[in-house]
Design brief:
It is a single chain. This protein is mainly alpha-helical. The chain is built from 7 helices and 3 strands; from the N terminus they run H-H-E-E-E-H-H-H-H-H. The chain is 50% helix and 10% strand. A 3-stranded mixed sheet has the order 1-3-2, with helices on one face. The longest helix has 21 residues. It is globular. The C terminus is likely disordered.
Length: 184
């Protein structure tokens, strides 16, 4: 990570540490899977978590979390590979775990596309948020990746930040190398 600006490197390391702490706090059993994680989060939050596969289309988000009065609904793309579906679900669960919120509302067209049989105003009120900040998206992506690695029994990322896992996250979440400043 020597090619990253020192401040970005420190920010990324803090993000990783925060996500590791969240993962540890979940105290997942060694045999946990996404279903067990949903059940555990449901119990902790005293709210049901429902998973809803639906065809969302290429121009829509792959998944979203709908926080309703007594249920958390995770809608995810039905027409994709199982591994991709699991990542989408883990990403949305990470938003729940991190208690992310947004003040941006969904527009009428998106509301009608997602739930054509419901009043768009009701859908907008239910969704209350549809977009997160870049920091929240990065946190959800890092935590989702860690969750899936943990659920699949993969070894955790090395604390020194030099693992293949960290390299893949950097490539995904940070600007291309040509845009990075060399502070080595």
């Amino acid at each position: 990570m020597a090619f990253l600006p020192r401040s970005r490197r420190k920010d990324f390391e803090r993000l990783q540490e925060s996500c590791r702490a969240r993962l540890v706090s979940l105290d997942l059993p060694p045999t946990a899977d996404l279903t067990a994680l949903c059940e555990q989060l449901s119990q902790r939050r005293s709210r049901k978590i429902s998973l809803l596969p639906m065809p969302l289309g290429a121009d829509q988000p792959c998944g979203l979390w709908l926080s309703m009065a007594d249920t958390d609904l995770i809608a995810y793309e039905a027409n994709t590979a199982r591994m991709h579906q699991e990542h989408i679900i883990a990403h949305e669960l990470a938003h729940i775990i991190c208690e992310h919120r947004s003040n941006e509302a969904i527009d009428t067209a998106d509301a009608q596309l997602l739930f054509p049989d419901l009043n768009p105003g009701l859908v907008r009120e239910m969704l209350h948020r549809s977009h997160y900040s870049n920091d929240q998206e990065q946190e959800a992506e890092v935590l989702a990746t860690m969750l899936l690695r943990s659920l699949r029994g993969a070894p955790s990322a090395a604390a020194d930040g030099e693992s293949e896992f960290v390299s893949r996250l950097e490539k995904t979440l940070l600007p291309p190398r040509s845009e990075r400043i060399n502070h080595a």
